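Hi U.,

Before I forget, here's the chain from the pilot set. I'm dumping it here mostly so it's searchable later in email.
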Amino acid sequence: MILLASRSPRRAELLRQIGVEFTTFPVDIDESPRPGEEAETLVLRLAREKARAGLQRCGRLGDEDRILSADTLIRLDGEIIGKPVHVADCRRILQRLSARSHEVLSAVALCDPSGRVSSALSRSRIFFRRLDGNEIERYCASEEPRDKAGAYAIQGRAAIFIERLEGSYSGVMGLPLFETAALLRDQGIEVLT
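Structure:
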């Protein structure tokens, strides 16, 4: 059984898309970056820590059990852009992303019964068109950007902001399926069943 260490409905939707049976098993960790920590290091560390926290929470895994976790962040001009804290923060983030490109990093981790954690990283580049103030206001007033890195959801209303994507659509959503499937296959777990 796959235990998905996430509350994200998007990650659950993506796992169902590739035919993986799972149980949601959310964990909470401190997601603060360490001093001087690079974005790639941070996103991989957080995905691995979520997997380890899942193992610690359940205590012991059966031979067929695995804990799957992921983390996603956005980088713009070398700066990590997190989730908006409030509407003004959402507005500020989207103004910064307007008419620019940014990088989306998504890490996925898989913990086996021995406690060994495998992980992989997906990189994507998103190109936003120029956004006007009114559409930023309307979008930020909606519920959609509240728990999203970079204050937007590619699979939601913000899809109209995105001029071009280079990389993994599922990675931008929060669970890179190519990398996830590879980790699962490496553990002998079938996908697309």
